[in-house]
Amino acid sequence: METDHSQLPEQHQLAEFRRTVWKNYREQGRSFPWRHINDSWGILVSEVMLQQTQTNRVVPYWLRWMEKWPTPLALASVSMDEVLREWAGLGYNRRGRNLKLAAETIVSTFNGQVPRTRDSLLQLPGIGPYTAGAILCFAFNEPVVFIETNIRSVLLHFFFQDEKKVPDSQLIPILEQTLDRQNPREWYYALMDYGAQLKKITVNPNRRSAHYSRQSPFKGSLREARGFIVRELATRGPISLERLAASTTISYERLKTALDSLVQEQMVAEQSGRYMIQE
């Protein structure tokens, strides 16, 4: 599909945008351990961990994981229980499961090497369009177009200050026009770092996005119950619902609902009334 240039900002606005983003990066760019490696597996691990999780929380987990499982083969070779024990506290346990399954697929289908095409990356569990684009860019310096919350913030702040419910379809053409095709990796670092800063100094620009939704509280949620169950099963092994309920203040009904959803998603298996992490 061709870009509709009539809907783009003026060239001088795009140039000013680039200058501002690069200037901020030179002066206040952030540093994370996965930005200083030439290892596609380490970058894939970081991108899965960063899904819906703040960067500073990810750093100690990433460092520990890369020490324990520095290759897809290393992660593919351990039990799902051990993987989820290491994941505990990072949230959204399905990501930890998907990361192990992705490692298994990389070993069995891609000869132990992280694939270098979008279509191949999308075959990996837990890898969607954004994460595939991020891996291509950060691991292989491919000039691809992708969008996430910090990038969205920057574009909304610069070009859509007086608009609401802005869809990503209006942002993508601007990303295409401003992409540094010689150095896409650092350009995206610069965009993300500027977006992270904006959220600290102004009202979150993402509230003007058509895709914005406020996350519901964790306490008392089904997510809380699911996290508790996965943590207990990974630590204690097979256990009944009654014993789970006896060790928490989470209601029996909410635990049962959470367990049923985990079984349906094949995160958890049930055998003779006892539940366990599914391998």
TrEMBL record:
Catalytic reaction annotation: Hydrolyzes free adenine bases from 7,8-dihydro-8-oxoguanine:adenine mismatched double-stranded DNA, leaving an apurinic site
Keywords attached to this entry: DNA damage, DNA repair, Glycosidase, Hydrolase, Iron, Iron-sulfur, Metal-binding
Reported cofactor(s): [4Fe-4S] cluster
Top EC class for this record: hydrolase
GO molecular function terms listed in the Swiss-Prot or TrEMBL record: 8-oxo-7,8-dihydroguanine DNA N-glycosylase activity; adenine/guanine mispair binding; iron-sulfur cluster binding; metal ion binding; oxidized purine DNA binding; purine-specific mismatch base pair DNA N-glycosylase activity
EC number(s) stated in the UniProt entry for this protein: 3.2.2.31
Classification via PROSITE patterns: ENDONUCLEASE_III_2 (PS01155)
Signal peptide interval: none
Gene3D superfamilies recorded: Helix-hairpin-Helix base-excision DNA repair enzymes (C-terminal), Hypothetical protein, domain 2
GO biological process: base-excision repair; mismatch repair
The keyword Membrane appears for this protein: no
Top-rank taxon: Bacteria
InterPro entries documented for this protein: DNA_glycosylase, Endonuclease-III-like_CS2, HhH-GPD_domain, HhH_base_excis_C, HhH_motif, MIG/MutY
Domain named HhH-GPD: residues: 49-197
Family membership noted in the UniProt record: Belongs to the Nth/MutY family.
Function of the protein: Adenine glycosylase active on G-A mispairs. MutY also corrects error-prone DNA synthesis past GO lesions which are due to the oxidatively damaged form of guanine: 7,8-dihydro-8-oxoguanine (8-oxo-dGTP).
Protein name: Adenine DNA glycosylase
